[in-house]
Amino acid sequence: MTYDLLIIGGGINGAAIAREAALNGLKVVLVEKGDLAGATSSASTKLIHGGLRYLEYYEFKLVAEALRERERLIKAAPHIIYPLQFVLPHENAVRPWLLVRLGLLLYDFLGGRMSLPRSRGLRASDTGFTNPLKGGRKGFVYSDAWVDDARLTVLNAVDAAANGAEIIVQTALVSARRERDLWRATLSDGREIAARGMVNAAGPWVHQMLGKLGVNAASGVRLIKGSHIVVPSLFDGDQAYILQQPDRRIVFAIPYENGSTEIGTTDVPVDAPEDAVIDADEIAYLCEAVNRHFVKQVGPADVTSSWSGVRPLYDDGASEAKAVTRDYVLELDTNGPALLSIFGGKITTARHLAQEAVAKLAPPMGCRVRPVTRNRPFPGGDIGNFGAFLAKVRATWPFLGNDRSHRMARAYGSMLHQLLDGISDAAAMGRNLGGGLTEVEARWMHNREWARTPDDALLRRSKIGLHLTAAERAAFNAWWAVAFPK
After folding, report:
1. Helix then strand then coil, % of the chain, to nearest 5
2. Do 234 and 253 form a contact (C-beta atoms < 8 A)?
3. 373 — alpha (psi -120 to 50), left (phi > 0) or beta?
4. Residue 420 carries which DSSP code?
5. What pLDDT, in 10s, does the model give residues 156-211?
6. What single string gives the DSSP state of each residue in 208-223?
């Protein structure tokens, strides 16, 4: 079968490009060797943000672009993206108060007209923000947004598929060669594919993929491991904290699942994508980072879970990992049918990257494209105000209960009407497989969202796996093996 575009890699960049290309009428196939968002794209800090600290490295263009995207994404996916206030305490600060204030004013300015509150100083009345902290009450408050990174990746793929793209998971590219005006590729399932253009969106494996294709890249990539830990809640409230460290890095403390706190991230150079495993030094570093600022203290024994991802950052020659640009580079090779390789990028700017990538591919492929996703809601995102939508969900399906209705409204948005079509009581949802996940929802994940293993469902399509006992995980695995035999 011949496609217009073959995309290698089902992370956020590959899925976003598939969406942009499919909506432009191109015949698209995306091939992912594991799960969608199975590596870096499910291991982020889970923020949609401009990158306040990037201003320190004069990344003004990147910050402005990211802030524009933040505004678009909040409107396009209000079910999985929502505003989050950040407290930036100035105790133990390594930057002058005036410098930080000016940075926040610049952050507001670069954001232009935005729906989120602008930055301000901490007030005497902000006791809910300051009581968890050691020392005085100097500091600032500003806003960014939280995102379910894995679901954002999946929703890109869902929209792409709804517009004709083919999404193939658990399948690797074995080989590919240029043959006149086509790429001819062989997949691990034996399938042969021809395409007029190819995108190398392999993330940390971008150079390995280029080697497989026999192509030399002008751009380089720095592999930087970022790790996060989860501990019992360090504070009450919905706010997050951005904490300055003696090494001039910053560490986030963010409300997470079931009253816990996510702490991250680290910046550790690594040699291979497979090095995405947290080590004892990183755990100690993150514990010490929050202990400098919070009254409540934590240690390695308090860590309930963790995750690590290897970020494929474009190599701009910076001497330290923390200074490496978070911008992206799109490298186009037209020595035969087009090949576009993606270096760098971040969750927040993936939509813009995809728009630019498709525009860059269009001339050598002889097709006309236009920006199509700037104001387009993501699947399930046409809900307006989330609070009002949640109230309707609870009125329509009262048997879901408060916790499950909130979780499912967040995960699926308006797609709940399809998922729960014809279901009028809890019994019709099938067996409870643990943590409120029922058979009807698990089958949706498999049939509509390409979940092929229990972890795909429990850790990426949802975070329910974090709350199950070992016995519940085993029971879910057993049910999955029977429901979806290989």
Report:
1. 40, 25, 35
2. yes
3. alpha
4. T
5. 999 999 999 999 999 999 999 999 999 999 999 999 999 999 999 999 999 999 99
6. HHHHHHT---SS-EEE
